[in-house]
From TrEMBL:
NHL repeats lie at residues 210-249. SUPFAM superfamilies: NHL repeat. The lineage of its organism: Eukaryota, Metazoa, Chordata, Craniata, Vertebrata. Keywords: Glycoprotein, Membrane, Repeat, Signal, Transmembrane, Transmembrane helix. This is NHL repeat-containing protein 3. The chain crosses the membrane at residues 12-32. It comes from Eublepharis macularius (Leopard gecko). InterPro entries: 6-blade_b-propeller_TolB-like, NHL_repeat.
Amino acid sequence: MGLRQCCRARLWLLGSGGLVSLLLLAALYGSGPGLQPLVFFSPWRIQNPLYKLDLSWPKFPELFTGQTFCVAVDHIHGLIYVGQRGDHVPKVLVFSEEGYFLQAWNTTTLEMPHGIFALNTANESSVWITDVGTGNYGHTIKQYSPSCKLLQVIGTPGIAGSGTNPIQLDQPAEIFVDDTGDIYIVDGDGGMNNRLFKLTQDLKTLWLRGENGSGTAQFRIPHSVTVDSLGRVWVADRGNQRIQVFDKTTGEWLGSWSNCFVEDGPYSVRLTADEKYMITAQLNINRVLILAAPPIGSIGDCVVVDTIQLAAKVRPHLLDISLKSGAVYVAEIGAQQVQKYVPVE
Ligand SMILES: *[C@@H]1O[C@H](CO)[C@@H](O)[C@H](O)[C@H]1NC(C)=O
Ligand SMILES: *[C@@H]1O[C@H](CO)[C@@H](O)[C@H](O)[C@H]1NC(C)=O
Ligand SMILES: *[C@@H]1O[C@H](CO)[C@@H](O)[C@H](O)[C@H]1NC(C)=O
């Protein structure tokens, strides 16, 4: 259903801007016979958008057969991993950045994928998926090889909990793994936990921020996590309608943005390769927000640079950005598809 409907709103906006300009020109020049060659200029034209929909991605959108909850980009190998839910559907689909379908995972070890992360460093390439299922394999995060071999399970399969030794999870929302192998987890998506924690590669807890609430460094549905090159950990604190930022070494709270999220909380946090922009999805209002990411130091107030308004019921959930091409891939639960938005030159 609903394929390709996302950009109607934006096309309509551009279209109406052009119409206003034409009417203006008609009003200014329309009556006289000696019409000069037109210099097309309209001070009312909306600012050029930063991204445009790539209608050619993927080549065969009918391959999306479930609810597409998440997407991860392996920019080194040019691969796009899509996590979807549903009965009797492959839980992971793999596409190329060009939009060709490459593989469907046959694994039975995934129940309900929520978040997905592609780790790509000089010495490692793996795919990490949070599983919010309540069956025998749920309440866990799984690490797979690029060809779907299960490498590691974090959490106690089938058992929800709050422990840290061993790690227990309840509806883990998302994971980020950095180049050194350190792991950041937000747990979770509405279960008993409201935690952000950092683990070593062998799952020792380095620090934990774990209070339920709306105060400083407390969370209500911490939904997405990413870490920037300046050592800041960004968390989409969805239920509190804000993004909170922490120091990656100490876990110390650095700041919070809430002024951009009055209508709906942020669902995702991802930075562009140059770290100029933070891109986040707002599921309930069908919008992708492009925010100015501040340089080192105080994060200040949130500033909207651009928006991509999607059609009603598209419901953008989580997204990822190719650090090579700059393309933004958005997992849209309502439209049951992932769409690609490319930077406008
Ligand atoms: C999944 O299973 C089908 C049928 O058993 C098989 O043809 C296909 O190659 C498998 N795919 C992968 C990626 O293992
Ligand atoms: C990759 O190798 C480097 C250097 O040996 C090491 O410090 C790092 O932890 C490794 N990364 C991962 C993800 O294992
Ligand atoms: C968190 O706190 C809120 C407000 O007090 C409460 O409604 C909610 O049930 C709490 N969540 C958990 C997981 O304890």
